[in-house]
Amino acid sequence: MINKKDIFDMVTAAENDADQALPGLTQSLNEALAGEGVVHTPEQILLKKVRRKLGMNQIDFAELINTPVGTLRDWEQGRIPPSGAAITLAEILLMHPDLAKEIA
Description:
Layout: H1 4-18, H2 25-34, H3 42-53, H4 58-64, H5 69-76, H6 84-95, H7 99-103
Helix pairs in contact: 1-2, 3-6, 4-5
Pfam families: HTH_3
Protein name: Transcriptional regulator
Keywords: DNA-binding, Transcription, Transcription regulation
């Protein structure tokens, strides 16, 4: 079982590794330990990152990838996982954002 000393040790190790203070890390770890806070999946982070990199809002990005905007919102908010095809397309667009113009 993780206790407060373990959290302190993890924060100290992470900050030492990063060579800087990491504000909010202690609070985040305490929330995770208590089963509180917000959890983001790698897929959610990927989709938002690609959309923002392309400078698109949800409506425009959903149109680009030929997906209903409600579905994109569900993916980004973690209500349902995106398909493998959507993840692959997002990874491609992240590496090659210029392809968005060709897709459009």
